[in-house]
């Protein structure tokens, strides 16, 4: 997919159906195609374009090389009242999470919390779709994902961490859920790739070239270079925490252990994901969503220009009214891939 200016629009259902056909045409099961298509179309609709249709060639390449199993059937194991281990069996992370839905519901109802540890999984998307639905059900959700080693630890010269995103969602009284979703690198890798496509330089401090020198060239960062973590040594320690929660606690692999081997061109990281889902009423605070609302108002009163997630919600609303912007060139490529 290119970064060409959108010169047309498509509605969400049509885009989802087109993407579903692409996934099916490239060897996924029907259930996996449904889940990935809704996820990817949702990213495009919400303006999360670094994880929308731009990712389709990467999904297709990973499927075509056999790096990921598009028909994998996840194995769900509830190892304690609140701990759910899921082996994605080298499939995508989102169907693995969906397979655990019943176990999560049971754990939250009985224990007030569910810890979901997914391993042998490929997460190639934004994290907000994993957490926002829980907040819509009145629950808090926090998730960590590791990935491919392309981020150096603070002060280092060699990539060890993935871009290791974190997402958090909570209900807010009389409002949309509050959703924070961010990489622990200065920038998500998808954003660097979008800059490379547009040949636009990155801000100073974004990353290093392959010789370990500071670089603002997205091509140099992608060609054997690496990204920095956000926030100096403090961000680096948060990336460390994500790496352990997602890559080790789950029984999965660490970002630097990815090896594409024969699967040349594959792009999806084989990694892990940890989620925590919490029932806020167990904290003895029936008015939790009102407390969140109070804090959100105070942030705006204090001068914060907007809350996390608001840009996405505005984009979603716009797309619902007018359709999702798309270039004719990208639409043609999607239709070709759909067969
Ligand atoms: P951004 O820096 O664009 O945004 C991070 C968060 O900050 C979002 O919740 C965003 O809300 C919010 N935000 C942005 N600007 C403001 C502002 N001015 N005031 C208040 N809040 C603000 O995200 P990243 O580039 O770090 O990550 C992009 C995506 O990449 C994420 O969805 C992440 O999950 C995904 N990713 C996925 C990986 C994977 O392995 N699957 C790896 C790394 C990243 P809003 O969304 O409304 O702009």
Automatic annotation (TrEMBL):
Matches recorded under Gene3D superfamilies: 1.10.1530.10, Hypothetical oxidoreductase yiak, domain 2 (3.30.1370.60)
GO molecular function, one term: oxidoreductase activity
Keywords in alphabetical order: Oxidoreductase
InterPro entries: Mal/L-sulf/L-lact_DH-like_ah, Mal/L-sulf/L-lact_DH-like_NADP, Mal/L-sulfo/L-lacto_DH-like_sf, Malate/L-lactate_DH-like
Alphabetical list of Pfam families matching this protein: Ldh_2
PANTHER family the record matches: MALATE DEHYDROGENASE (PTHR11091:SF0), OXIDOREDUCTASE-RELATED (PTHR11091)
Family, as annotated: Belongs to the LDH2/MDH2 oxidoreductase family.
Name of the protein in question: Ldh family oxidoreductase
